[in-house]
Amino acid sequence: MFEIKTKRVEQADEKTEVTLKIMHSLPSWFSPPEDIDKKAIVHREYPFFAAYDEDKPIGFIVLKIHNEYAVEIFNVGVLEQYHRQGIGRHLLKAAERYCADNGFLYLTVKTLDASAEYEPYERTRLFYKKMGFIPLEVFKALWNEENPCLFLVKRLQEQQDILSALQADPFFSEANQERLQRAAARMELTGGTVHGLIDI
Q1: H-type alpha helices, the chain
Q2: Spatial distance between the Cα atoms of 38 and 45, rounded to a whole number of angstroms
Q3: How do residues 124-147 score in pLDDT, each as one tens digit?
Q4: Which of 59, 63, 36 is nearest to 48 (CA)?
Q5: What predicted TM-score, i.e. pTM, was given to this entire model?
Q6: What are the sequence ranges of the domains in the chain?
Q7: Pick from 170, 169, 199: which is nearest to 187 by CA?
């Protein structure tokens, strides 16, 4: 088992290099090649986080700030041989920390809708569901009719709001404070939502 390292990438050329390396290796998710090359340029201007196996880039996530409330996962990719090893979860948690540090309330993402019946994106939708995103709407013509767009959102402040409220309650016992801290730690590790607090 290797240690997953994530960091914010600041250098524009490094963003482009990581994007090209990973997206061109994932033809089941990203195509055509010329679109990948265009995205590699656009990514240079956006907040960008990458995951590494030692010095090897194995995944990335790119954020687009829409306004003072909402940030979009503009793009994300993980080398297929590293799927189901927690890389996507680590990248998403890095993005959520960035959003929390900067006061954003919502994280959104667009992905392929289930009506397209394409297996690789079934895994993608399942990942977002596990990470607490909820589907809001399908835009059938945003991309094109063959690729209906599913729009999902996650409210970032909910679990922190509830943690703060419980901690401020004078009737909330010291023992429960310790259980609350353990539950919060589990939520951080698993990407859980506020429902992770149900057993405190």
Answers
A1: 12-23, 33-42, 87-101, 119-130, 158-168, 174-190
A2: 12
A3: 999 999 999 999 999 999 999 899
A4: 63
A5: 0.78
A6: 4-156, 157-200
A7: 199
